[in-house]
């Protein structure tokens, strides 16, 4: 299924910086209103989560000793559960409640649909041999004392000749 939440390198770098300034961190994916549905970064435990929130990930960030939890409200997750989320950073001022606001950067969640695994196809049987080239308008051969001649007859698929060729057999001498 893959990770529900991932980080871009820029987001990981900002998290390391914020961790150095504020200690352990957490995210809560906002549902809108004044913070514009941005992921909000707080000191761990400062934003109270409860039974109406879902822990989507405990993110491992190089250079940060503890995992960074990523939460979302259960109601919002119901709407987004078919997506995967990537936390990124863009220039601009974040919400006044999120720790990155004074940095001139803001966290941004990018959502995308996961790519389905390509179907596993059964092995293909060998291709059938190519059909023989149609015979020339008249072919003949001798089988013992039988002379066999093939000549064009009715169109292919007709009741008279399903292949479009008729055979004449005569006794040779």
UniProtKB/TrEMBL annotation:
- InterPro entries annotated for this entry? DUF779
* Any Pfam family: DUF779
- Tell me the protein's name: Uncharacterized conserved protein, DUF779 family
Region (Disordered) spans which residues?
109-173
Bias (Pro residues) occurs at 115-137
Organism in which the protein naturally occurs: Micromonospora narathiwatensis
Q: Give the superkingdom in one word.
A: Bacteria
């Amino acid at each position: 299924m893959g990770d529900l939440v991932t980080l871009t390198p820029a987001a990981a770098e900002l998290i390391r910086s914020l961790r150095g300034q504020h200690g352990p961190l957490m995210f809560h994916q906002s549902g809108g209103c004044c913070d514009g549905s941005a992921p909000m970064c707080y000191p761990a435990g400062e934003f109270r989560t409860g039974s109406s929130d879902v822990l989507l990930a405990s993110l491992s960030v190089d250079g940060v000793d503890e995992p960074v939890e990523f939460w979302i409200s259960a109601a919002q997750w119901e709407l987004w559960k078919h997506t995967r989320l990537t936390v990124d950073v863009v220039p601009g001022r974040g919400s006044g409640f999120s720790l990155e606001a004074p940095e001139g950067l803001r966290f941004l969640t990018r959502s995308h649909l996961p790519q389905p695994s390509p179907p596993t196809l059964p092995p293909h049987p060998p291709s059938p041999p190519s059909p023989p080239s149609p015979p020339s308008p008249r072919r003949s051969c001798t089988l013992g004392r039988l002379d066999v001649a093939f000549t064009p007859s009715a169109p292919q698929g007709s009741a008279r000749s399903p292949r479009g060729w008729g055979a004449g057999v005569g006794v040779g001498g």
